Amino acid sequence: MSEAPLYSAAGDTEAVLAAPGLRVSRTRPLARFAFRGDPAAAGKAGAAFGASLPMTPLAANRVSARAALWLGPDEWLLLAADETAAAIAVGMATALADAPHALVDVSERNVALLVEGEGAERLLNTQVFLDLDPAAFPVGMATRTLFAKAEIILWRLGDEAFAVECWRSFAPYIEGLLVEGARGL
Amino acid sequence: MLLIQCPYCAVERPELEFRYGGEAHIARPESPSELTDEQWADFLYMRSNPKGVMAERWRHVHGCGRFFNALRDTVSDRFLAVYKAGEPRPDIEAPEPTAPNKETGR
């Protein structure tokens, strides 16, 4: 279920690893924002952004090519594939003019890897120490955690599909460990 | 590895996602300039270091990023309670030593 109009349109991912039942790919650039604010500001931000900011811990809300991921009680990651970051920032700044908040463009800071296939859980579990069983980590759950020594945001897109958001300088480290880990599966 | 419940995320996570933040419920004096050196040193350095139940701060640094407080038994290293920053300390005594929990093995 790699339905992502968010992360990948046809043919614009770049394969890092392709093995039977396993595929890791780099995704296209997205507009990304780190949003911080109280629930009132988050409500307004969701209305302006087009995908409401989830108030439930570890939840993610995806509306076509946009998504809002809960990272903390006052912190969200916003993703958008259909507009430039500058255009989104202008629209949101207008809507949030009277609500204290921080909206930081982190489009250039983060990159995302898609980890897909029946071996995705096992491959991620070579370095991620969370229980990725669907009962404990259902589709739609998103969380900040560690991948070996690198901080990532792990988001389950489908039964056998995960997005790994990481800082771009950590991406070669994570890709290397994924390729290494896949050899041992 | 210790599993720690985060009161903000409402899930148990491995200890690696957390940072220890020292003893909890130590309020900074309102007007430090009026304190004697001894009182100020007491605030800065003196901690209770109990053998038994201790209230301490933890930060879910590789998760939601929030500080929270926890009651931990320093004898058994078991977490007895976690609660959000700003909430009062739960009134919990150290439990009698028991066999490890069959479900969690702790």
Explain what you see.
The complex is a heterodimer of chains A (185) and B (106). Chain A has helices at residues 39-49, 85-95, 120-124, 171-183; strands at 14-19, 22-26, 31-37, 60-63, 66-72, 75-80, 101-105, 110-116, 142-147, 150-158, 161-167. By secondary structure, chain A is of the alpha+beta class. Chain A has two domains: 14-28 and 108-183, 2-Layer Sandwich (Gyrase A, domain 2); 31-105, Heterotetrameric sarcosine oxidase (Alpha-Beta Plaits, 2-Layer Sandwich), CATH 3.30.70.1520. In chain A, the strands form two sheets. Chain A has a six-stranded antiparallel β-sheet with strand order 1-2-8-11-10-9. In chain A, helix 1 (39-49) packs across helix 2 (85-95). Chain A is globular, with a radius of gyration of 16 Å. By secondary structure, chain B is mainly β. In chain B, 8% of the residues lie in helices and 32% in strands. Chain B: This is Sarcosine oxidase subunit delta.
Range of helix content of chain A: 10-25%
| CATH fold call of the domain at 1-25 and 50-93 in chain B | Folate-binding fold
Low-confidence stretches of chain A: none
Pattern of helices and strands of chain B: EEEHEEE
For the record, give the distance between the C-alpha atoms at the N and C termini of chain B, rounded to a whole number. Answer: 10 Å
Report the sheet-strand fraction of chain A. Answer: 35-45%
